[in-house]
Design brief:
By secondary structure, this protein is α/β, with parallel strands linked by helices. It has 12 helices and 14 strands. Helices cover 40% and strands 17% of the residues.
């Protein structure tokens, strides 16, 4: 089995690659080789099988064609321009988040091999004045360019699957927290920085009120679900190939209290509370009353509590002294 991770240089792509290297199998078959592709060469990983590293710009059809060949069995399509960047630069978002998806699917169509394609969408497809609660069959009503681009990707994945050109499945990711590294341009980036930086002894700002609610999931659970998602059978997915990955809805205040329960009160004192209108405007378009019954029924799992998210960060990603 050959696995390709588009976005293999990102934090989720790297974690997924490491997990698959340890697992050594997917969909009941041994992994014989893996390709990690991104705008820049991903960092090497150790694996019991060959791992190739390849620059890839998914907005460029020729670059995509260089990454996907007839031997590719499973494609993880994680590469994307994040939310705030897509809102600031419409062309960048369209090129990566809409045309990039189309380029990948068209390459699969040209090869005629019908690979499994795992597409990461976003809960940003929901919003506006659509009645709540949202479930997997609610009408998407995105309030950002990023959400609209991800919604188009979902429709393409489902349609190309209906035509037998790919065996697709898409998962709307909750906010993944606590992320390692530095803040990025995602509107939800603060959802990691207000825990990560204080836990590392640094200050961080929260741009929303303590009662702001968010659907969240830890990186560890996200990776487990992405692997389970690839192993689902087409007959179990039905006519709509996309769904929301299960998570838990907690308020910022509840999450900070959970961090305090795990590590004590010092970290919370390093959080400042200054509004950022450019972020607040995007977040107001998101709605968090989201039900994930379909993913749960298929065996995908949320975290048990946000205390677990804090513990997972400390175990997996916190800088070691």
């Amino acid at each position: 089995m050959k696995v390709l991770i588009l976005g293999g240089g990102g934090f989720l792509g790297r974690k997924l690659a490491l997990k698959l290297a340890k697992r050594q199998a997917l969909r009941g078959k041994s992994i014989d080789q893996m390709v990690l592709a991104d705008i820049v060469d991903p960092k090497p990983i150790e694996a019991p099988f060959p791992v190739h590293y390849q620059p890839c710009d998914i907005s460029n059809p020729a670059s995509v064609a260089d990454c996907i060949d007839a031997e590719t069995d499973v494609i993880y399509l994680l590469a994307a321009v994040v939310s705030a960047h897509a809102e600031e630069d419409l062309d960048a978002g369209l090129s990566a988040n809409m045309m990039g998806v189309l380029n990948v699917l068209e390459r699969c169509r040209a090869l005629g091999t019908c690979p499994v394609v795992v597409f990461t969408s976003s809960i940003a497809v929901f919003g506006g004045d659509t009645p709540q609660p949202f479930n997997d069959f609610s009408l998407p009503n995105p309030q950002t360019s990023y959400g609209a681009q991800k919604m188009i990707g979902e429709y393409l994945v489902t349609d190309y699957s209906r035509r037998g050109l790919i065996d697709g499945r898409g998962f709307r990711l909750p906010t993944i927290t606590v992320r390692p590294g530095k803040p990025n341009r995602a509107a939800s980036s603060f959802m990691s920085s207000i825990f990560r930086e204080p836990l590392n002894g640094e200050a961080a700002n929260c741009p929303v009120e303590p009662d702001f609610k968010q659907l969240y999931l830890s990186p560890r659970k996200c990776i487990e679900n992405l692997i389970k998602g690839a192993e689902l059978q087409a007959t179990d997915l039905g006519q709509n190939r996309c769904m929301t990955m299960p998570g838990k809805v907690w308020s910022i205040g509840q999450m900070i209290e959970a961090m305090t329960n795990v590590t004590g009160p010092a970290a919370a004192t390093r959080i400042t509370w200054q509004k950022q209108p450019e972020i607040e405007g995007i977040l107001k378009g998101w709605h968090m009353d989201i039900r994930t019954d379909r993913g749960l029924a298929l065996g995908l799992e949320p975290d048990d509590s946000f205390e677990d998210n804090i513990r997972i960060y400390l175990e997996d990603d916190a800088p070691q002294s």
